[in-house]
Amino acid sequence: MWRKRAKISPEGGTEAPSGTSERSAGPDADPDTDAEQGTDMTAVTSDPRTDPLSRALAERAELIRLCLYALDRARSSGVVERLVEGLDGVGVAALRPDGERFDPAHHEAGGTVPTDDPQLDGVIAETEVVGFADRDRLLRAPIVTVYQSRPEPPRPR
């Protein structure tokens, strides 16, 4: 919400905001003053200690958290798809790292699958629970199943 703030007169009193045109110029001009209208266009918030950008970012984070909560509980594949598309539209990407190397800093191991192929050892076989990242910040690590080499059977003596 924007509102005009009363002007302070040189005598210390205040003048009611007016619609008359008053131009500010020079280095002492108030950057929050609209030069055309001579009015202060500072944003008014319910909590003066919170600037509008901080509040908007906090509200965005809360909406993302609520969308992830709803996504985890959605029973309809159409609803899930729409939530994932909506989150992607605001910079929150779904993480399905199938085929990538397992990295405990970015993935959570939910289980292992044995493999005889040494090339697959430590590679993610499948994503059990999709993870999410807000641009470069990890919100929730994906829970994955990782290929693990079978131990070699003991050799007969």
Automatic annotation (TrEMBL):
Domain of life: Bacteria
Annotated region (Disordered), positions in chain: 1-53, 98-119
Keyword match Chaperone: yes
Basic and acidic residues bias (residue ranges): 98-109
Record SUPFAM superfamilies: Head domain of nucleotide exchange factor GrpE
Alphabetized InterPro entries for the sequence: GrpE, GrpE_head
Keyword Plastid (UniProt): no
UniProt keyword annotations, A-Z: Chaperone
Record's protein name: Nucleotide exchange factor GrpE
Organism of provenance: Saccharopolyspora rosea
